[in-house]
Amino acid sequence: MARNWGTLAELAASLIERGKAGRRVVLSPQTAYLIGIKLQTADAKPERDEIALMICRRGQAELCSEPCFECMGRANIVVRAYGQKSPARDDISRQA
What we know:
Blueprint: H1 8-20, H2 29-42, H3 48-55, H4 69-81, H5 87-95
Helix pairs in contact: 3-4
């Protein structure tokens, strides 16, 4: 069977379209492997607090044990850019 996609975005769009239409999807072993790797690493993104600790230095040569407010804000921007919610937003939505 010929490959019907050129990029990962095209593959994703095709899979989504067929899934919404209730149509069957048959994957080649190579495509199944590629999708498996992508799914395995999709949730391997660092969380906000981890990112904040990576970038926070508070003007010192060594990393801080607690991130400062400014770096926490920067970490929120990074997390949102990659499709994750910050812990504070999750807490607010659970309380509503």
